[in-house]
Design a protein that fits this description.
3 helices, mainly alpha, 95 residues
Length: 95
């Protein structure tokens, strides 16, 4: 080993920046919200996929048009807000 590798191996870990500690109840509430939003995002993705596949195999132009409108609604009403709340809950940054 080089001297550089040895010095890195023996270094003390960098201290975490100060973080707010949550009570057990607040942490469990945040975890529950995180799981609910995650499952909602999964459901939105599954619904989007189902409509997209159904539209892709259909030969009916009216079906394709209505599926396109439905996919737009899924993306606008469910996908964007749910994904934003999933990333904004901050659960991955709280101990």
């Amino acid at each position: 080993m080089t001297a550089n590798a040895t010095s890195h191996a023996t270094e003390e870990p960098i201290a975490d920046s100060p973080r707010a500690r949550l009570s057990r109840r607040a942490r469990n509430s945040l975890l529950t919200a995180h799981i609910v939003v995650s499952v909602g995002l999964l459901g939105d993705s599954a619904g989007f996929l189902a409509v997209a596949v159904r539209s892709a195999v259909s030969d009916d132009p009216a079906m394709k048009d209505s599926a396109r409108e439905l996919l737009g609604m899924f993306a606008l009403l469910f996908g964007i807000p749910v994904e934003d709340s999933h990333h904004a809950d901050g659960f991955d940054r709280v101990r």
